[in-house]
Specification:
The protein has about 725 residues and is an alpha+beta fold. It contains twelve helices and 37 strands. The strands form eight sheets. Strands 1, 3, 4, 6, 7, 8, 9, 10, 11, 12 and 13 form an eleven-stranded mixed beta sheet that branches. A seven-stranded antiparallel beta sheet has the order 25-24-37-26-27-29-30. It has a five-stranded antiparallel beta sheet with strand order 28-31-34-35-36, with no helix packed on it. Helix 4 packs across helix 11. The radius of gyration is 31 Å and the shape is flat. The termini are far apart.
């Protein structure tokens, strides 16, 4: 359903009004809507019951034979704690003060929170055999609470939603074609195995990022997200830093008002009005940190839970290992606000899907998800690379997803013995002659091929030459032995390291192995390995691009010692991401100058300034989409220290005058933004770009066209995102 666009400040005002109304005019006894008829309360845990009444009113709560009293505070807020109970029911819950609230058919059993983005939100009406599943969904001992979607600038105290007994009618109501399918199948399996009533609370929103679901406490507990925590603190009106900055802003505004009024009297120019600091704005977008936590999660705590299940990650694609830090923040934050210790948290590794672009991107996110499961206590991850759909980001086999989540819970939370809950998990790597032996944990009843075909998606790499190549894989007990023709000294392996990977290794219990990397990547010179002509070139400059600054200091500078004439100039750039994958590009061309002092970074000190075509490009690269080959036409340079504009004054073929690409025009000042770009305008491609070098980690670096903004990487400010970056400049002497 499309949500109406409401300004953040209006939502903030509305929330304030609602909170004021609750605290100042509350009359009848009221409980938040996480409580209700047909609900399930968590067995074996103290039961926190809370709500509102008249200020200072005494409220008595009864559940079966248990009774507790509390006095409301000056705001009308009250809370009681009932003793833990065993699975049983039905009971009636009553809260009595000046009025009485009664909830019937209350069961004591197991309660789980189901959250995430669209693959958790996806309702039972969208799954395989949907009509059959709905018709058979008559489970009176399964209870469902679907939380209405809502994001807010400030934490809320209530939700919209009501508990329902699971039936063919109720399971298909609301949400995205009904209650969460993954949640439903998880809960159904638990209920049938445990024999107690199970309550499921669904709080989901498709297309959302994990940080929106994360409370401030989670960011505070995660050092790697310190900057995000500080932004959350700045935006929180209750923090000292927010109050201090707001006071400063108000003082400056009052001073401006006084000066503006005086200027109006004097008919003088009015100075510019102070701008409200953006960092003080509360979350004003669905995707901003804490926005969904505020509206969809905060009102649920501390309703007692056994644990949570989570299915999310598609909207954080590209974050790789950083996603593990985000998971740490989410889980630590939820555990902190629930005050139940390290409650179980089980999640789904997202399915393979053709997102386009670099095929390793999703594998890097998988690695982050796996790292979270390995490093965060009392968590677990299910792998679903065998039940995805490369053409559908919402695979329909949610029965398998729910079943695997239930296996985790049954084995790890409910201590069912001899229950295999995981597919094969990498354990160790050993070299045996010219082969690698990969040993696995969780082999269950033994390793096997899911489809009866040879094992696929294993790749190995040689210590001395070449990149990763497809490996022949043979099962040997709890191990897989890998080899490949021509790989004499294998040193590393990767498995299912592509968004297109639907691999076939599994255990005989029917659970698949997840992607992994292991071994030591060879420390080799990519230039010598991948560019045959490089052996005929001499190095002029070598620059660690982590040292970019207004004053370029090369690690190697031989431009004065090379005295022979040269006829070709070459550039080799390497950019290594946080997961150690390195993109590279080599381009050589006919010499465009006779001065070696002008072929490096075109600073004002070098005097280099070139906007011209260059002939006979030889291009080598491992970046998808780069047109490679020898003797290519269409080369052109944009080398200058100047500012520049997108207007195509040089009439470069195929260039745009609207965006920064391979047809820009230099502008004043001379000592400005700076551009070092080589292009293939026939292919409509930026080959590489180094811009704005004076900004260091804020410089622009790129190979190929940037896909989401200016193709030549102008304003990317991304240099600091690379783990390593290097430029070499070479020449071919005559």
């Amino acid at each position: 359903m499309r949500q109406p666009k409401v300004s953040w400040w209006f939502q903030l005002l509305l929330a304030t009004v609602c909170l004021t109304a609750i605290s100042s005019v509350q009359a009848d006894v009221e409980l938040p809507k996480v409580f209700g008829t047909h609900m399930v309360l968590q067995q074996d845990m103290p039961l926190v019951i809370w709500g509102w009444a008249r200020p200072n009113e005494i409220v008595t709560v009864t559940l079966g034979s248990a009774t507790a009293k509390a006095q409301a505070n000056d705001l009308g807020e009250w809370k009681v704690v009932l003793p833990a109970m065993k699975a049983s029911g039905p009971f009636t819950l009553k809260a009595t003060g000046s009025s009485t609230v009664t909830f019937d058919d209350v069961m004591i059993g197991e309660v789980w929170l189901c959250s995430g983005q669209s693959n958790m939100e996806m309702g039972i009406g969208n799954v395989n055999d949907a009509q059959k599943e709905i018709a058979e969904a008559n489970h009176p001992d399964l209870r469902l609470l679907l939380v209405e979607r809502k994001w807010t600038p400030l934490p809320q105290t209530n939700i919209q939603g009501e508990w329902k007994i699971c039936s063919p009618k109720s399971v298909a109501e609301g949400g995205w074609s009904g209650f969460s399918a993954a949640g439903y199948f998880f809960g159904r399996d638990l209920q049938q195995k445990l024999g107690v009533t199970v309550g499921l609370i669904e709080s989901t929103w498709g297309g959302t990022r994990i940080e929106s679901w994360t409370p401030p406490e989670g960011f505070a507990a995660t050092p790697a997200l310190r900057q995000e925590y500080e932004r959350v603190q700045w935006a929180d009106p209750s923090t000292p830093q927010h109050m201090a900055k707001l006071k400063q802003t108000l003082d400056e505004t009052e001073q401006w008002l006084a000066s503006a009024r005086q200027a109006m009297v004097n008919r003088a120019l009015v100075p510019a009005m102070p701008v409200f600091p953006q960092e003080l704005l509360a979350p004003h977008d669905l995707q901003m940190a804490t926005a969904l936590y505020n509206g969809c999660i905060h009102p649920l705590a501390p309703f007692a839970l056994r644990g949570a299940i989570w299915y999310q990650g598609e909207s954080n694609m590209g974050e790789g290992m950083r996603y593990a830090e985000r998971m740490k923040a989410l889980i630590a934050g939820w555990r902190e606000v629930w005050h139940e210790g390290d409650f179980p948290f089980y999640f789904v590794q997202i399915a393979p899907y053709n997102y386009g672009g670099k095929k390793e991107t999703e594998a890097e996110l998988w690695q982050g998800q796996a790292a979270a499961a390995q490093s965060i206590p009392n968590t677990g991850m299910v792998v679903i690379n065998d039940i995805g759909d490369l053409k559908d980001i919402h695979p329909k086999n949610k029965q398998g997803v729910g079943h695997r989540l239930a296996l985790l819970a049954l084995a790890k939370t409910y201590n069912f013995d001899k229950l295999e809950y995981s597919g094969p998990v990498f354990k160790s790597l050993n070299l045996e002659d010219n082969k690698l032996r990969v040993t696995f944990d969780h082999v269950g009843e033994g390793l096997t091929s899911r489809d009866g075909k040879p094992l696929d998606w294993f790749e190995i790499i040689d210590a001395d030459e070449g990149g990763f190549v497809k490996a022949e894989a043979a099962i040997d007990g709890a191990s897989v032995v890998l080899s490949a023709p021509g790989v004499k000294h294998p040193v590393a392996v990767r498995y299912a390291w592509s968004m297109l990977a639907e691999p076939n290794l599994m255990n005989k219990n029917g659970l698949p192995a997840g992607s992994f990397r292991a071994g030591t990547m060879p420390n080799r010179d990519l230039l010598q390995l991948n560019v045959p002509e490089a052996k005929n070139y001499k190095l002029v400059y070598d620059l660690n691009l982590a040292k970019l600054s207004p004053d370029i200091q090369y690690d190697v500078d031989q431009h004065k010692s090379i005295t022979q004439p040269f006829d070709r100039v070459a550039y080799f750039i390497e950019l290594q991401n946080q997961d150690d994958d390195t993109d590279y590009l080599y381009v050589s061309m006919d010499a465009f100058t006779t001065d070696l002092g002008k072929i490096g970074v075109p600073t004002t000190a070098s005097g280099a300034h070139f906007q011209r075509n260059v002939a006979k490009l030889n291009v080598y690269s491992n970046v998808k989409g780069i047109v490679t080959g020898e003797g290519l036409a269409g080369g052109n340079l944009e080398f200058w220290p100047n500012n520049y504009a997108p207007g195509n004054s040089a009439n470069v073929p195929h260039a745009s005058s609207e965006i920064f690409d391979f047809g820009d025009q230099p502008d004043d000042p001379t000592d400005g933004y700076g551009s070092m770009q080589v292009h293939n305008h026939d292919a409509r491609q930026t080959l590489f770009a180094i811009n704005h070098w004076r900004e260091g980690d804020g410089a622009d670096l790129g190979i190929g066209n940037q896909t989401k903004a200016n193709p030549d990487w102008t304003f990317a400010a991304n240099a600091g995102s690379y783990k390593a970056r290097r430029l070499r400049v070479l020449v071919h002497v005559k």
